[in-house]
């Protein structure tokens, strides 16, 4: 999708579409997860059966894209926040209203729901995956600090990344588990934003390093195979998990996805053919698909299982998940066209040239 600066990156929209597919599949599979005694035997499919990792891909994309847009620029922070509100609030507000209408029966429930939504400003409580929008906005609050830090000291973001890991270690020792904070809050997600920014800073080093990127991705797949084998998100050994793996999972996801984003953006130049345009459009509609799919994905999975084929085989389940995801694309288009897009014309440019660069 075009930013307020008029920039458009087709490849990044394609990656955003992949992230939406991963998250959709995660929820589609969850309905029948108990039927699968073991995870997929081929590691790449673990990214779908543990598709919560798609959120990490979205976070890395945000860090990378903002670093790319803000290169050699000064940001007008108030205008920046205004643009982000225009981009995110209309659909999120509609989602909140729909969830309220379908779940509230009396005044007491209405008051409780309003309190629940207001808590979402700080806590991960917004419905339909809206919790990740809260995390994203927390990132926006510290974005100027991150950019200033990266300008003042070359390796400052690397030191900050190390500090976040130390903080999670200390929290783990105090709380006995860190999954809740690592997954649902900026305590863990900050790594993915930082690594996205760092991936852009070092994109020239990453460009064309095909074997290195492939090697890193293979190790990432093997790690996720191991993570899935150990019980994954819900059963390692329970939820929330007391496994210390959650100290470093945000970092591993952030490092791997950010490398792939920077490599794809700077090594691959997608042609403007029909396939690339369609896959990029999936990314363009991904925000709508992400928030709206909660209304459909579980019912789709149950319908297939009850009326077409029993979803007891993971590979068959993944095939039907892809087919159902295709149904979400026109839904995402309609949402983008009539809910998101009308507000985008009010965006204003928040950038101006600056001689200082992000080193």
From TrEMBL:
Alphabetically ordered keywords of this record: Acyltransferase, Membrane, Transferase, Transmembrane, Transmembrane helix
Domain Acyltransferase: 10-331
Entry GO CC: membrane
GO BP annotations, alphabetical order: polysaccharide biosynthetic process
GO molecular function, one term: acyltransferase activity, transferring groups other than amino-acyl groups
Entry's transmembrane regions: 12-29, 49-67, 88-111, 131-149, 156-175, 181-199, 211-227, 247-264, 285-301, 313-336
Chain segments annotated as coiled-coil in the UniProt record: none
Protein name (Swiss-Prot/TrEMBL): Acyltransferase
Gene source species: Polaribacter aquimarinus
């Amino acid at each position: 999708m075009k930013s307020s600066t008029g920039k458009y990156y087709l490849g990044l929209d394609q990656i955003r579409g992949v992230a939406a597919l991963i998250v959709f599949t995660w929820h589609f599979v969850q309905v029948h997860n108990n039927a699968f005694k073991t995870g997929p035997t081929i590691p790449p499919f673990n990214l779908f059966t543990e598709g919560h990792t798609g959120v990490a891909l979205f976070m890395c994309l945000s860090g990378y894209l903002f670093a790319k847009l803000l290169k050699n620029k000064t940001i007008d922070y108030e205008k920046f926040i205004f643009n982000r509100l225009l981009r995110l609030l209309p659909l999120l507000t509609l989602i909140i209203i729909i969830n309220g209408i379908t779940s509230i029966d009396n005044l007491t429930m209405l008051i409780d729901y309003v309190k629940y939504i207001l808590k979402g400003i700080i806590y991960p409580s917004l419905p339909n995956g809206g919790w990740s929008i809260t995390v994203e906005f927390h990132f926006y609050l510290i974005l100027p600090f991150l950019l200033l830090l990266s300008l003042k000291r070359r390796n400052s973001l690397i030191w900050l990344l190390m500090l976040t890991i130390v903080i999670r270690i200390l929290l783990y020792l105090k709380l006995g588990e860190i999954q809740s904070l690592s997954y649902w809050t900026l305590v863990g997600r900050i790594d993915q934003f930082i690594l996205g920014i760092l991936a852009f800073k070092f994109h020239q080093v990453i460009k064309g390093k095909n074997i290195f990127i492939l090697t890193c991705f293979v190790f990432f797949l093997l790690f996720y195979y191991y993570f899935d084998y150990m019980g994954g998100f819900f059963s390692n050994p329970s939820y929330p998990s007391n496994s210390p793996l959650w100290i470093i999972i945000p970092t591993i996801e952030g490092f791997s996805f950010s490398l792939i984003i920077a490599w794809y953006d700077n090594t691959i130049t997608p042609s403007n053919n029909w396939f690339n345009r369609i896959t990029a459009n999936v990314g363009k509609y991904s925000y709508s698909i992400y928030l709206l799919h909660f209304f459909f994905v579980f019912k789709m999975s149950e319908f297939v299982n009850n009326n077409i084929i029993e979803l007891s085989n993971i590979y068959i389940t993944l095939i039907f998940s892809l087919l159902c995801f295709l149904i979400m694309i026109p839904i995402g288009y309609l949402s983008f066209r009539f809910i998101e897009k009308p507000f985008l014309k009010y965006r204003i440019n928040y950038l101006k040239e600056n001689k200082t660069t992000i080193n």
